[in-house]
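Researcher: Next entry in the queue.
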Amino acid sequence: MCGIAGLLGRSADAGRGRRMLDAIAHRGPDGVGEWSGAGQDGAPLWLGHRRLAIIDLATGAQPMQSADGRLVVTFNGCIYNYPELRAELESAGAVFRTRSDTEVILHAYAHWGDECVHRFNGMWAFALWDAREQRLFCSRDRLGIKPFYYRTGDDGTFAFASEVKALFAAFGDRARVDHDGLRQYLTFQFCLEDRTLFDRVLKLAPGHSLVIRPGDDAPLVTRYWDVSFDIDEDHSPKWFRERLRELLEDSVRLRLRADVPLGAHLSGGTDSSVVVGMARRLLPEGHTLHTFTGAFEEGPQFDERRYARLVAERHGAVGHEIVMGAADFGSTIEKVIWHMDEPAAGPGVFPQFQVSKLASEHVKVVLGGQGGDELFIGYARYLVAYLEECLKGAIENTAARGDYVATLGSIVPNLPSLQNYIPMLRGFWKRGAFGEPARRYFDLMDRFGGAAPLLDPGLAIDQERTFDEFRGIFDVHGAASMINRILYFDLKTHLQSLLHVEDRTSMAWGLESRVPLLDYRLVELMASVTPRLKFENGRLKHLFLTAVDDLLPTEIRDRRDKMGFPVPLPAWAGGPLREFLGDVLGSQRARERGVFATDALLGASSGESAFGRTTWGALCLELWFRQFVDGDGLAG
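Model: Structure for this entry, 636 residues:
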């Protein structure tokens, strides 16, 4: 887990490169390295690395060069199956000089070429220079756990880095807004596919590789992996449960590989509780497992410590807790946005930032439950979408045809899961009912839905274009059922925003975060499961819960009130943060942005529902403008 950066072209000098590494120094407090070379045409090349040492502490420094000098790589992440790959490569004649997973990448590329990425189980973003082939080969892991950004300067120099701020450090210019990215953000509170909020800055999409040669005008980007919904009708529910459990345990086992102390995030929900339970069973006897939990004192819906304590006590873990308040938010949020590079999808980034800081004081690696909601069908909005489908089937008397994962009668016992989502239901049905599936799920994902009066009258937002872009992801991959189309969209978009948060909040404190529920083998298995089994009768996480029942206390398994990591920002907006929000959102700079109707926005902020996202989206965007577009940087 580290920070990487590189330059290829006329401006690829070490001075620029070092400025890039300085901008992301927080990602690698344990070491810094650089390598310079040139292509056959004389085009200079520079690769840099900031190291967070997790595996092979003594000899794993980067950038790392092959023994014959042909290859050099700078790598961020972890290849969890590196011992198995090393053994296979050694049997083919490879000679290793280190114990690191980085050297496995070098030998794997030398042996299999670009296809080596299919052999990796892990999280990664790397750039590998091949002197013989005169090409820079870059790759990002299948699910997008590790970041990779790139841009081309005015002189044609290609630059890449783990964080966007390093790209601007390289060229010494100021960020400009990508207006299509802004349009997407104002709908989803994240950007789609390879787009960012920064003009001329792109991100390498998950499951993609990139190749650029000296003199190329632009890189060639190709997809090497995608989710395929080829439904397996041959195996029984029992087989799927056992296979899911087997893969879950193996995924956690692989992610316990480290040469430093590790712990786990623990929220009190099913996903993190399962990860903690499995980790405790797989760790060697005598190993202390530390868990980390955050809470607010504004009400029980913001405090899940009692559930986290149940899990920690059951598995003999040492629990650590942090309680946060409005003052912490006001004093920290600008630093959070600076680390994020782009506005974050949801205020949960703030407590995650604080909990990561707590974890970094005790361990160097944490496991977490990220991805479980997307993979196993855990979000309440999935139930909302299917509730409407069930109503439609009942009214039209078509439910008996077998087209529905659940019927109205079968889904009713699971509706208490929506007890905290009445505002979502009210807003969803206010915007229509029984429309095409893509349009209805778009309405659920529209974070500023119904908030047009809060936008500046002069701001032209082409919502139909945004919907077309949404539908291009939602409908194009061949999944037959609505639930699989929903899952595909969320894996490709919403999950990316959460992994963005996961990466930045951990790396801000020199902490490696591992997400065992996003092992690609689990994703492929769940994509093959018939929707009726994984979402039986509308029960959220049905197959997952049946596979891990023994790991969960009854109080957690039967919970109907889990809300993610809610933050009492709307309550603070009318109280202790009222002045802070007024100073930011009501400032002259904010008024002159031409994005929000300021007075209407401030009025809405004071009356927003407990889990609303409008105040957060506007605050996050304005702070981003100040730091990156206005050039304020990180205050203090």
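Model: The radius of gyration is 24 Å.
Researcher: Noted, moving on.
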